[in-house]
Specification:
By secondary structure, this protein is α+β, with helices and mostly antiparallel strands. The protein has three helices and eleven strands. Strands 1-2-5-8-9-10 form a six-stranded antiparallel β-sheet, covered by helices on one side. A three-stranded antiparallel β-sheet has the order 3-4-11, with no helix packed on it. The protein has a two-stranded antiparallel ribbon with strand order 6-7. β9 and β10 form a beta hairpin. The chain starts with a helix and ends with a strand.
Length: 155
């Protein structure tokens, strides 16, 4: 998040840059001249090489995805991923992915992980009190649960 935001901040100062997308491992920042929005693809949490949908993002915004499919291992038949619930010390359960859109890539990165750990219900409560943040949640099976980010799912 912070690296994507730093690069975006630098690109914003370069007059010759017309439009840009910075994508550093799923932390994306967009900007440049003009008002045309950027279309961002949504990976399938259960088949990460496939795009299952998309959403529109205005210049000056950033998005980040926290997902259980990016970094994980299986031991004794149990799948462990890298997003740790601080209450249990074990990987957070219940969701497969959370996508967050915010005005800053660092904030989007932090909140995607925090909302993943919070879970859907607590995450939606957070979004109700922070309407400037947009997010979408996918359940443990990779199915869309909901959120306040307008997305289009293919198919």
């Amino acid at each position: 998040g912070i690296a994507a935001q730093t690069v975006a901040d630098i690109l914003d100062t370069i007059e010759a840059v017309d439009r840009y997308i910075v994508d550093l491992g799923g932390n994306i920042a967009v900007g440049g001249k003009g008002e045309k929005p950027f279309i961002i693809g949504i990976r399938d949490p259960k088949a990460p090489d496939e795009i299952i949908g998309k959403f529109s993002m205005e210049k000056g915004y950033a998005c980040a995805t926290a997902g259980d499919y990016q970094r994980f291992f299986v031991a004794d038949g149990v799948r462990y991923h890298h997003i740790i619930d601080p209450k249990t010390g074990y990987p957070a359960r219940g969701l497969s992915a959370v996508i967050v859109v915010a005005l800053d890539a660092t904030i989007a990165d932090i909140l995607s992980t925090a909302l993943f750990v919070m879970g859907y219900e607590e995450g939606m409560t957070y979004l109700e009190t922070n309407p400037e943040i947009r997010a979408v949640f996918f359940d443990g099976e990779g199915k869309l649960l909901g959120g306040n980010l307008e997305i289009k799912i293919d198919g």
